[in-house]
Amino acid sequence: MLVVGQLYVVLPVLNKLAADWDTSKSAATWTTTAFGLAYGVGFLVTGPLSDRWGRRPVIVGGLLATVVSSLLVAAAPGLVSGLAARILQGLTASFFAPAAFAYLSERIAPERRVFALTCLTSSFLGAGVVAQVLAQLIGNALGWHAIFVAGAIVFVLSAVLLRVVLQAPAGSGDTNETAAKDDSTHEGSGVRGALAPYVFLLRQSRLALLYLSCLAILGSFVGIYTGIQLAPPAGIGSGNTALLALRASAIPAMVAVPLLAGRLGSIAPATRLVTALAAAAVAVAVTTIPWGGVWVAVWLFVFVTAVAVAAPAAVQAIAVSAGAARGTATALYTFALFVGASAGPQLANLAARVGYSAVALSMAAAAAVGAALARAASRARVPVSIGVVETVRE
């Protein structure tokens, strides 16, 4: 939640950033996009690094590097330097997610894995709500700089804690990571060798469609919250209290979805993904009806619940189709998620000029397109074999 929350912490303080940096609120939204793009692109590099260096060193080292980048954001005197610092912060933060997914896949028993992965993806989505609430509270009390200073302090504490509790990397009795590292030595060298697994996966129509559908998951999620900040819906004032309550109303969804993981696991991942994205589209569209703040909060809760179901369903659907290339496939999944998260604020920024209804309908359209792509993916042929990695290497 802390790592992914860095994507969202600027949303409640866009006005403060714009005023402090002498720029417009629309320009300040690029601080979200800059982080999200760097974060997503970083996965394509940091995923393979965790295979070579081990999960614990990559996770702990990435957290410590993010301490420095967070402090640089806090010290940024203007928009240009702020964007540069946010890009660096996105890159350093990207060390966490691929290694965390791989660590759970290796360490958690199969019968508990769906629950564990759902908790992880729900924490990523929960960050979108919790981080905004905390950022708004800290920003109002101490200023926006304090948000990143506080984050740096907690990153240090997290790095120390995880260094203690995570199991030892290769060379210290970690057979899974030793195998991963030994196996990686057979891969082709150079740029071509590094890109070959990605190209192989993207040439499969089912996976390509699934990755495109993933753009809508965080794209619509981050987009609607950006739109709420830029153009609050009818019945929600622009005051801090009203916006704080609206953000907090979705927190229970982040608790409920992991608790329902067992029941949800009985439904095919592709079916869950299509249904969840379709439900998200309907829920966010309904918020355009001007029936007051409670109405918006209820349907925003439904929307967040649907997104929280869609995210783990997508990664499971991708894993089913990826065969032995699950590590590379997961890196592409997280890349697609956060490319969508980077595009969402800019789409919301454009739509907010018309009003909240335009924002909500734009996000509804994005979620509906994502559902259609996921549906098309479920009908596509899957040529993947379990030996896909060996085929790529040959």
Automatic annotation (TrEMBL):
Keywords: Cell membrane, Membrane, Transmembrane, Transmembrane helix. It is a multi-pass membrane protein. It is found in: Cell membrane. SUPFAM superfamilies: MFS general substrate transporter (SSF103473). One of its GO terms (cellular component) is plasma membrane. The chain crosses the membrane at residues 28-46, 58-77, 83-103, 115-138, 144-166, 208-228, 240-261, 273-291, 297-319, 331-348, 354-374. Residues 1-382 form the Major facilitator superfamily (MFS) profile domain. GO terms for molecular function: transmembrane transporter activity. Pfam families: MFS_1. PANTHER family: CHLORAMPHENICOL EFFLUX PUMP RV0191 (PTHR43124:SF3), PURINE EFFLUX PUMP PBUE (PTHR43124). This is MFS transporter. It comes from Nocardia yunnanensis.
